[in-house]
Design goal:
The protein is of the alpha/beta class. The protein is 42% helix and 24% strand.
Length: 320
């Protein structure tokens, strides 16, 4: 069917006159002159093809045809008002769906807390997590599978931008009764003869690079690589191996009875970055969440990692 030839303003004039039974009163409510209201109604009558009111010098009454049309006119205006409100919400970043690709650890211990905090400010915004391996994070944003990406520092191409949000130190996780747990801090040589398990190839490369400048026989090399950080922490909790990971996984490690020990001289940092498309426009809701997440993460880090804050020399593993 072709679209109607009448406008929302004409419908509004008709509904208001029908409610108030007066062109003057309708004009006052709509901030229009009575003649302007009458003109809108006349235009609507021409468009629909029948009279909407029976007019006399003393009163205005809705015609029989007008009564049949009044209900649908009300419904149409209600839908238009809801559409206008929805458009305003989207425009003001107050509604919409945001898809965030992130890694297992961040999806477990960081992002849900940020989502909860954002929901308190923007209850109509729905944030959905897209689980992704570190190696798939940038591609998820580049291909449009996600609006945003949150994860470790990775090389990007021209189609994805990267913004560093926070640095989290790599630390050793070990059982409380392990000999290394008695030391307040560690040096890399303390780990030379310890069995280490890495979570994923990304962690394996990071661990191997941490002391890459050392002679071949003294480098830190993991003895096993597992897919998930939870598996690595589980092995460490049973004393089968130790594991290195960023400090932000504390919420996963501490319930297993593991303790955190900093490894210094130098201290190695994992940079957490926000990824977004460089050439594709993301929804306003995603823009709003990206701005919120940047500030929220810095506050979260300050609260969680204050006990391990220090100023030792720092390096970052080389990107590949």
């Amino acid at each position: 069917m072709p679209l109607p030839r009448f406008s929302p303003r004409q419908l509004e004039a008709f509904v208001t006159v029908a409610e108030l039974r007066s062109f003057s009163a309708a004009g006052q409510r709509l901030a229009l002159t009575p003649s302007a209201v009458s003109q809108l109604v006349a235009e609507l009558e021409t468009a629909v093809g029948f009279r909407l009111f029976d007019r006399s010098t003393r009163k205005v009454a809705v015609s029989s045809a007008g009564r049949d049309f009044l209900g649908p006119a009300h419904t149409a205006l209600d839908h238009l008002r809801r559409a206008d409100t929805a458009a305003a919400d989207v425009r003001n970043r107050a509604a919409g769906v945001v898809r965030v690709a992130t890694t297992q650890a961040l999806a477990c211990v960081v992002l849900p807390a940020a989502m909860k905090a954002y929901r308190a400010e923007r209850p109509k915004v729905v944030v959905r997590i897209r689980d992704a391996a570190v190696e798939q994070l940038v591609d998820a944003v580049a291909t449009g599978d996600a609006d945003l990406g949150l994860g470790p520092d990775r090389t990007t191409g021209a189609d994805v931008t990267r913004t560093a949000l926070l640095d989290s130190p790599w630390v050793l996780w070990c059982p409380a009764d392990h000999p290394l747990a008695a030391k307040p801090s560690l040096r890399w040589r303390d780990l030379r003869d310890q069995p280490l398990v890495a979570a994923g190839r990304d962690h394996e490369r990071s661990v191997a690079q941490m002391r890459a400048e050392q002679p071949e026989g003294t480098r830190i090399v993991p003895v096993e690589v597992v897919d998930n950080i939870t598996t690595a922490l589980g092995l460490a909790a049973q004393g089968l191996a130790l594991t290195l990971s960023p400090a932000y996984v504390a919420a996963l490690a501490e319930p297993l009875g593991l303790v955190m020990r900093r490894v210094q001289a130098p201290e190695v940092m994992r940079q957490v970055c926000l990824y977004r498309p460089a050439q594709r426009t993301i929804p306003p809701a995603a823009e709003g969440f990206a701005e919120f997440l940047a500030d929220w993460l810095r506050a979260w880090q300050a609260a969680r990692e204050a006990p391990i804050a220090s100023n030792p020399p720092k390096i970052r593993p080389r990107r590949r």
